[in-house]
Amino acid sequence: MILLTGGAGYIGSHMLLALLQRGDDVVVLDNLSTGSKQVFDHVCRISGSNAEFVQGDIRDTDLLNIVFSRLPIDTVIHMAGLKSVSQSVVEPLRYYDNNVVGSINLLNVMRNFGVKKLLFASSISASKPCSPYAQSKSIVDEAMKDMAASDDTYSFISLRYSNPIGCYDVTLADTSQDNLLPAIMRVINGEQSYLTIFGNDYDTPDGTAMRDYVHILDVVDASLLALDYLDNHHGHHCLPVGSGKSTSVMRILELFAQQTNQCLPYVIKARRTGDTADSHCDISQACQQLGWQPKHSIYDAIASTTNFSITKGL
Ligand SMILES: NC(=O)c1ccc[n+]([C@@H]2O[C@H](COP(=O)([O-])OP(=O)(O)OC[C@H]3O[C@@H](n4cnc5c(N)ncnc54)[C@H](O)[C@@H]3O)[C@@H](O)[C@H]2O)c1
After folding, report:
1. In sequence order, which ranges of the chain are alpha helices (DSSP H)?
2. With a 6 A CB cut-off, is 121 part of the ligand 1 pocket?
3. What is residue 313's predicted lDDT score, i.e. its pLDDT?
4. Which of 13, 135, 284, 306 has the fewest Cβ atoms surrounding its Cβ within 10 A?
5. H-helix or E-strand spanning residue 160
6. pLDDT of 177
7. How far is CA 275 from the centre of its chain?
8. What domains are defined for the chain?
9. Where does residue 174 rank: exposed (0-12), middle (13-18), buried (19+ CB within 10 A)?
């Protein structure tokens, strides 16, 4: 059985759907701080399968002990975490507590119960940490590496995701405050009057920050292949997962404008602390080692996200 932490969140719910579709037994542990039980229920409904749901926190050792002692967990997919770069700059300890203390707690319980297989949702930002968020991911990657070095029966993988976008259906769309696509959708849906672009003075062709946007379905494919990879590979592995290309904020805005036939109002503000000019990743290792290849375009991702608004007649 697979324990999926953060399975009521954006990436976790897509992962849950794929696991249920391939017939895995899954228990989701989520404290619902940013995730939603409705999303979890929706995934069970569309997959035609059931997963167990435990509402709780990865920092709650007693709860983890109960979950691991009651259920035959042999694999953990750890996606529970806080992910706002800007919030992490304002509340660093909250991020270290949730993301680092929580993950170490989970690793401890895994060790005590002899669970050896772990996939961790790390971030491309962990390769050169510029924020407490990125640092929190990097620390967990390092802890996993050290733990795997101490016992060669562990099979651990840190997938350093870039910027997943798009959705299987709109109920599963990302709704977080910080990410670009949800912010654009709030403007399209009239919940916000304009988009704020943080910085147009980066050293990039149009001055706006460039990111490696990757379709969520490609992220899930890579993650499923990584789980299979762990069946035959011990140790700690760390792979960047993205599209391998970077796209500017302004270009994303243009693609939205093309698809929705409307120009989106925006204002330029100062750069955010912790943000970098360009963060695209090298996916050659992930392609080679996992036998994976991204299949979906940014255009597909935007289409899946805007579907709702277009059918609403916007
Ligand atoms: N979305 C991205 O751009 C991105 C990029 C790289 C890495 N990641 C990482 O992938 C993971 C999932 O991201 P997401 O986009 O789905 O975020 P999300 O906020 O949609 O999902 C995170 C889930 O974890 C749960 N959670 C948070 N802290 C918890 C805790 N202490 N105990 C139990 N549950 C907890 C939340 O309720 C939520 O359901 C995160 O760890 C994030 O850092 C995300």
Report:
1. 10-21, 37-47, 61-70, 85-90, 92-95, 102-112, 132-150, 180-188, 216-232, 249-260, 284-290, 298-311
2. yes
3. 35
4. 284
5. strand 155-161
6. 84
7. 17
8. 2-306 (3.40.50.720)
9. buried
81 lines ligand 1 (CB under 6 A): yes
User: 10, 95, 133, 154: which is the annotated catalytic residue?
Assistant: 133
Ligand 1 atom with the shortest distance to the CA of 80 = 24
Tokens standing for residue 156: 């651990």
Calpha distance 281→244 (Å, rounded) = 5
Residues found in the chain: 314
* pLDDT tens digits for range 133-186: 999 999 999 999 999 999 999 999 999 999 999 999 999 999 998 889 999 999
Looking at the DSSP bridge assignments, the partners of residue 266 are 195
Residue 22 DSSP symbol: T
DSSP character string of 181-197? HHHHHHHHTTSSSSEEE
Residue 153 and residue 232: Cα distance in Å, rounded?
Answer: 11
The residue type of 313 is G
Q: Which residue ranges of the chain lie beneath pLDDT 70?
A: 308-314
